[in-house]
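Hi everyone,

Forwarding the result from last night's run.
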Amino acid sequence: MTNNRNNHEIDYKIYGEEMQFVEIELDYQETAIAESGSMMMMDDGVQMQTIFGDGSAQQPTGFLGKLISAGKRVITGESLFMTAFTNEVQGKKKVSFAAPYTGKIIPMDLQELGGTIIAQKDAFLCAAKGVSVGIHFQRKLGVGIFGGEGFIMQKLEGDGMAFLHAGGFIVEKNLAPGEVLKIDTGCVVAYSPSVDFDIEFVKGVKNFMFGGEGLFFARLEGPGKVWIQSLPISRLAGRIIAYGTYKRKEEGSVLGGLGNLFDGRE
């Protein structure tokens, strides 16, 4: 591990393929922070404490300051509280955090990534204590309205380990200066602050009326890193809802049952 960190140093291991969890190893008095409800299991000797915000050094001091800082997280759709897990005994102890849906856990060493990452609102899973989980406002009106994630995203700052979760398969791309990548707006997981994030209107009447890809692309211009997910949770949820509410006209008949067999719906 790299030395001279301000945040807690933690070792980790990721288990699983489609439904992953991350196991974090804590030395004595080391702490990991996580979203409420993400803990899967922990060793005896690890103490759990509910805290306002993320408990980072960047938070304002005093109860009112911490309350205001934690309240900003509500804007991003997260809970007012986070949970801190601290090893209170000598020796190494482990705590594990599970992904909320099918996909991959992305480990990010913020020290090696320049200290800051911008992520979609529900991507954060857990991190070493000291990592600040704040908010990032989109400055461009078009991105805020049509960019898939709205005006507000999460901003992770610090020099420790942070773990994001995203759906499907995850692709990490390094964009050279001036290199442009066009992505479905829902597939953007995270990016370096040096990346210019904008939206682009889909050209051609037939494309946006019948192409099924929406009216806008996310336009990312380097330099910097970009993390992309193949299956946004919004897309998955939409397909499940559509499947659950779709009713074939011939359902309930003998022929309808045979039709469902042939098209794989039985």
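The CA atoms of residues 168 and 230 lie 5 Å apart.

Cheers,
N.
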